[in-house]
Design brief:
The chain is of the alpha+beta class. It has one domain: Gcn5-related N-acetyltransferase (GNAT) (Aminopeptidase, 3-Layer(aba) Sandwich), CATH 3.40.630. The protein has a 5-stranded mixed β-sheet, sandwiched between helices. A hairpin with a 4-residue loop joins strand 1 and strand 2. The N and C termini lie close together (5 Å).
Length: 152
């Protein structure tokens, strides 16, 4: 991933998490709304920090035919720990192995570190939900098969 990919990755993130919010919405909850321009800029700033601090932990999957980002995984190694900030694949590309390839790449970068990751897959978790899982050990990635190219 390069700095010039951040805006496209943010758009992919916004689409991915909006659809996830729509799919997981419960009766009586408000309709999911698109990410605001302010929130989009904040996402770019935050993910730009991870890219600056640990570029090897930031990956995107690109549709070469359209030169567009179809998936992303952003993580950071912090001493003995590895942190997954976010990851996702566009809804119409899910189930094709892109997410697995992205996770293979960032887990390989983790190099056996114990991990911390959000426990929710939506951009706006309910206030009562648990937000973090900590100190889990990533599974070995050696048995996984990669089927989609992943750009550093």
């Amino acid at each position: 991933m390069r700095p010039e990919n951040l805006r496209s990755a943010e758009r992919a993130s916004a689409v991915t998490f909006l659809e996830a919010d729509r799919q997981s919405r419960r009766v009586g909850e408000p309709e999911a709304e698109p990410r605001s321009a302010t929130d989009s800029e904040q996402w770019i700033d935050r993910m730009g920090h991870f890219l600056t601090e640990d570029p090897g932990g930031c990956r995107v999957a690109v549709d070469e035919g359209k030169s567009s980002i179809v998936g992303f995984a952003i993580s950071q190694n912090r001493g003995r720990f590895w942190y997954l900030a976010t990851y996702g694949v566009l809804p119409d590309r899910q189930g094709t192995g892109i997410g697995r390839r992205l996770m293979d790449a960032v887990l390989a970068h983790a190099d056996g570190r114990r991990g911390m990751a959000p426990t929710t897959s939506t951009a706006s978790p309910p206030p009562t939900s648990g937000r973090w899982t900590s100190a889990w050990q990533p599974a070995s990635t050696s048995a996984r098969r990669a089927t989609w190219p992943c750009a550093a």
